[in-house]
Design a protein that fits this description.
Oligomer: single chain
CATH class: Alpha Beta
Bound molecules: S-adenosylmethionine
CATH architecture: 3-Layer(aba) Sandwich
Strand content: 15-25%
Number of strands: 9
Order of helices and strands: HHEHEHEHHEHEHEHEHEE
Radius of gyration: 19 Å
CATH superfamily: Vaccinia Virus protein VP39
Shape: globular
Strand order of the largest sheet: 3-2-1-4-7-9-8
Helix content: 25-40%
Largest sheet: 7 strands, mixed
Distance between the termini: 38 Å
Structural class: alpha/beta
């Protein structure tokens, strides 16, 4: 099947039969609208909140308004919990921006925020993070540069997309960071470049962040950010910490079932 195709640059998708459409906004819309989503992927995210708060507490925050970009919140309670922690610290919750390509997630999120005091209401933005055109058509850049990027299994979902191909003839809707790579390649052998979806995400985050911005991600993968040279040019992997997965994910009947881990990644913008 063909996946949703940001800016028309993806090739026809060779999808494994039966694999879920994690890279398709309509798949998530249906899940959220019909109550089929578990509501919280991997775990409840307490470790992520701790990591975000301790990062922000180390920063000078003269405006009392830390800026956090929350990637793919879906219907998770993580953003709300983070906002509550902001309020307890006297920080403004309206520095938290939730971005998801599911219009249903955005609608539900906005509904929850409506009626909240303006300085505490989180923002919700609808955009496909693989599409620079999409990102630019929102007001995301008005909130930039973000201090922290929060990602709870969203790069996992994005990782299921096909790589995107760029060349010097690619249209104008290209992120400047990607354009630079394409132009450098043009000086070399002029071939097309292929960017894996997580690498593309990392490049799209560059203009929205600044040196020292922290990207905090929870993933099931032990190698979510490995072997991505264009990502590594802009993001330094600081740590990868294993957390035992909540019980119930492994069979309790097996006496020697190996412990399953999830991983908190901390990356820092160079
Ligand atoms: C695995 S779920 C995680 C949801 C939530 N963070 C949690 O922990 O429960 C992935 C989320 O990312 C969103 N998503 C997937 N691909 C996306 C993309 N390319 N752009 C924006 N959002 C995306 C989905 O709509 C969904 O809400």
């Amino acid at each position: 099947m063909a996946s949703s195709s940001p800016a028309g640059r993806t090739r026809t998708k060779k999808k494994i039969t039966g694999a879920p459409d994690y890279d398709d906004a309509a798949f998530w819309d249906t899940k959220f609208a019909t109550g089929q989503d578990v509501g919280e992927w991997l775990n409840s995210g307490e470790g992520l909140i701790e990591a975000v708060l301790s990062d922000l507490e180390r920063r000078p925050l003269p405006s009392g308004r830390p800026r956090v970009l929350h990637l793919g919140p879906g219907i998770s309670k993580l953003g709300t919990k983070l906002r509550d922690a902001f309020v307890r610290r006297g920080w403004m919750g309206n520095g938290i921006v939730n971005v998801d390509f599911s219009s249903e997630a955005v609608r539900l999120g906005q509904e929850l925020e409506s009626g909240r005091e303006a300085t505490q209401a989180m923002h919700w933005v609808s955009a496909d993070l693989r599409s620079w055109d999409d990102i630019m058509s929102t007001n995301l850049s008005h909130f930039a540069p973000f201090d922290v990027i929060l990602d709870k299994s969203t790069s996992d979902a994005i990782a299921t997309s096909e790589p995107q191909i760029f060349s010097s003839s690619s249209d104008s809707g290209i992120c400047p960071t990607v354009r630079e790579i394409v132009d450098q390649n043009q000086n070399g052998d002029g071939k097309e470049i292929s960017l894996s979806p997580v690498e593309l995400l990392s490049l799209h985050l560059v203009p929205l962040t600044q040196k020292g911005t922290t990207w905090i991600a929870l993933s099931y993968s032990t190698s979510r950010f490995d072997n991505l040279p264009h990502l590594a040019a802009h993001w330094r992997l600081v740590s990868r910490t294993g957390l035992p997965a909540p019980s119930g994910e492994t069979s309790s009947s097996a006496a020697h079932t190996p412990q399953v881990f999830h991983w908190i990644y901390i990356l820092q913008r160079k």
